[in-house]
Amino acid sequence: MASLIEELITVLKAEEAVYRELLPVVEQKTQIIVRNDLTALQKITELEQLAVEKVNALEHKRDGVIVNMGVVLGRDPRSLTLSKLISLLEGQPKEQRELSLLHDSLTAILKNLSDANLRNQSLIEQSLEMIEFNMNLIQSTRMSPGSGSYTKSACENNAPVWQTGMFDARQ
Fold first, then answer.
1. Which strand (E) or helix (H) includes residue 73?
2. How far is CA 3 from CA 8, 10, 60, 95, in A?
3. The domain 2-126 belongs to what CATH superfamily?
């Protein structure tokens, strides 16, 4: 069991390191979204994707360790949360303390990541709403009769709506 606990601690430390590396990337993403820099957004999204792949591999490894711990302890692995494991380590204060510190650290980092991701999601949604508003505004001014388009002879140029050049998705 001791080797499983050590392996779990190693995996959790690796996850913590990846999340710590990801936090400034996500915060930088906020600034990129605000600047509306699509090229930089694509690059930073690729960095995030690499981090997600690392985390997924570590989570898979962690799940395997938890399953093995469940077998050793005779418990359902789905019920073995980190908090539960910490409470089960009464006789091993060093490991209990280390797991407890990792738990607190991961909780704080994940909260910060979650907050930053929610903020980025909100900024992206607002940007999309603004784009949609602008598109609707452009479309309504081009399709309205008497739009103020005049020819050289000061006559109003009433081109049919279908000739305004706007894409009609219904066709």
1. helix 38-73
2. 9, 10, 18, 11
3. FlgN-like (1.20.58.300)
